[in-house]
Structure prediction request, 989 residues.
Amino acid sequence: MCGIVGYVGGREAQPILIDSMKRLEYRGYDSCGIALVEGGVRVYKDAVRVGKLERDLPRDPKGRMGIGHTRWATHGKPSRVNAHPHLDCSGRIAVVHNGVIGNFMSLREKLEAEGHVFQSETDTEVLPHLVEKYYRGDLEEAVMGALRDIRGSYAFIVMEVDSPLLVAAKKESPLILGVGDREYFVASDVPAVLDHTDRVVYLEDDDIVRLSPLEIKITNNGQAVTRQEHAIPWGVEDAQKGGYEHFMLKEIHEQPKVIQNALKGHISALEPVMNLDVHPERDIDNILLVACGTSYHAALVGRYVIEHLARIPVRVEVASEFNYGDWVLGKTWAIGITQSGETADTLNALRRAGKRGCGTLAITNVVGSSVTRIADQVFYMGAGPEIGVPATKSFLAQLMAFYLLALSLKATDTHSLEGLIADLRLLPGMVQNILDREDEFAECGRYLVDYNEMFLVGRGINYPVVLEGALKLQEVAYIHASGYAAGELKHGPFALLTPRCPVIAVAARDNTYDTLMANIKEIKARESPVIALAEEGDRDIEKYVDRVVRVPAVNPLFSPVVNSVALQLIAYYAARGRDCDIDMPRNLAKSVTVE
Amino acid sequence: MENAKQAVILAAGEGERLRPFTALKPKVMIPVANKPILQYVVEALARSGIRNIVMVVGYKKEQVLDFFGSGERFDVDISYVFQEQQLGTAHALRQAKDVVGDRFLVLPGDNLVDAETLSSIIQAESATILIKEQENVSKYGVVTVRGGVVEAIEEKTKEARSNLVNTGIYMFNREIFDFAEGEVDLTSALGNMIARGGSVAAQVTGGTWLDVVYPWDILEVNDAALRTIDATAAGSIEKGVTLKGLVSVGRDTVIRSNTYIVGPVIIGDNCDIGPSVCILPATSIGDNTVVSSFTQIENCAIGADVQIGPSSTIDDSVIDRGSRLKGHLIARSGEVDVKIEGEYHRVEVGAMLGEYCHMEGGVNINPGVLVGNHSQVKAMKLLGQDIPDGSLVV
Prediction:
């Protein structure tokens, strides 16, 4: 929800901070700011994007130590005064923070009673004042004092004008260290430091770090600890646009590779042993999938796949709802799906299921993320870093995770698997085929530009696909799109059908095809323009709809893969036609670490 | 003089004579020994110390962007300019006018070269053409040189006055833009330069310079490139497998029992080969490809994501990515007349399959047949003539 970064070393901090913040902008971008130590603490911040802040900076602000922040507003609207870094009363202490201080109201009242003067509406501002209150010449001790008072989730970085070091602390919000040559970085996520180093330390909850140009010291509950250094296998390449105008399009184009990577080493026609690093819980009688947003849609597809292939009952819950119900859990294997590994609701749901005695599995894309410490087992999606805020390749990687998981749960039966394995191997090519015909999807996207509301309908395994397609159209193209199970439209939403409300129908050639055709006729009778996403070779459909967009024919079980990519492209080109800010949609952030 | 630091690669062309292989990708992305031709060019530049690369892309440009990105994987820094319509090499270079410095190399992205090829030109200071001696010059621009200075460049002339051909590799200063304005090809721009009293130098290269003009050329260039690979055996090689000569096996690939491989052969990552498969010299097999039991393959360029069923015999053939061939496929070589753009060429070649074809069991393909992308062929059919993209043979 916010991105933070700190630098200490021998170089000028300002350009390093700005570049890192650009890589963290996916976490929030309604305002941003930096603070540098040079004589005094200087703060430059505003409710602007990082690029604008950079242009507005005075020429060459000096300082070899600094902190930066890019914000997704929770407490207080986006404005210059609410932007981080925040200062104490004396202007000697600066803080950037990601997370939520739960008890900030009472702390603020107490601090104000003690004479501290607050500038902003943020929860964060209590931090510099608390550090000021406890500061007796040692910044780390002052931070420890402040931590005793606060409740909530945080990753924050503090600097003080006379201390030649940064102090960072972490609890339930991500924080990593980048280890350079006589310089150190601390940031919310790995891409922020990749320009400078590929050596990274993942911090754990309750860690407090002192960073000076010469060394880092990590303590946890007063004890000195060492944390393992990891070499990051991917490079800056993954975090660059590589000639594309938007990360979203670049990431859409990475999907054939994502599928290939997912299948690598896991499938073979002769020995369909999955070699997953995940061991299914024994003695379970059902599986619970919990997730939010796009991951929730992937989980809904996962239900069809697991029930169909493995014959195990699956229920899917929106994590934020699961957390407040008094549910019956039996011999349940709880699986949480979160791209970032930081989604607060999903983390809580997994914790809750774990406390109830369920075995837990996390499906995530981020090594070392919080969910990997909560779940018993972890399945890494391996999609590589996803920078565009709209999820694309991570959704596909989640689908692949469910296919592999379901196949590994299926009783080994080589013969029936053979066809599935051959079909799986074809998937990268099928997705590439869609990308090769990008113009056809672009044309459909451009057709949607003039409409402000629409429906997407599908049935069976493609019902979640239309939910995800609608989400994409909402978040990137700002079209009020709703996804519906095709049979549900007549139970109310029909009242909204007009010639100004197009409908996209996803027509897979499975057992739902005939009823879907009936649904399309019902919709046509209400004069909505209907666009069908239909298989190559499906000639009948042309009789029923206004436009047909073709996807390659695949095994219906895998049709969500091709249909999702098609809808991503349509949403992308609709957004382009509507001049939307595709990689950074308004009001959004990549990972949502608040409930 | 110090070496040039910047290069412009012209990678926008389609390569119509190479259909079906260029219907879905630009010519520069045709794989040769499991690497796109363009990668050889990029690697030759990197080895020559030229890391600032401007790529002019156009036709199916996404394929280039997806593969090369910002160039980090190849230890170079790539930026892109777009040539929306492919209106010749001079027009292509003009697209890069705003991003090139004072002195830069220009290369076609669709000719296979190595660092040695470039060694004689990278130090050139002023306008220079890289030329190469060639036995048959009829396909190329012929350069006449006196005292290291170019007198004339004649395109595809009948009465060649020299056996030196233009490689399409040049060193330029920014002044080339003064002569390239309004021109289609760079040779015309150089002609203007010479006509107006400018001097164009020539450097001869003895290094690799291979061009793919027709579909069957892929096999010859594939063979040449395979001779330069390193023998490596990653993946897992079961008991009873024989590897002879220069053989490279990729990561996560399984070679199953009784498979017999004679190099030069390259097999990509994550393949599943065998048991009892015979792969004979000058064959490349792309990533994620499956070759099932009792199949024999010789002198073939096989793409990624291909599935070849059991008991197939395939030689002198090109099989592009993503095809699923269900077994008992016969694609044998023979001497035939192949028609490309209305002209017949007598060549010895097997089948040439585009991308994502689906063939059921027992299909026979006659020598020299071009099979369009996304074609589907039912069981036991004989393909006696070319079929266009998206065909259904029942």
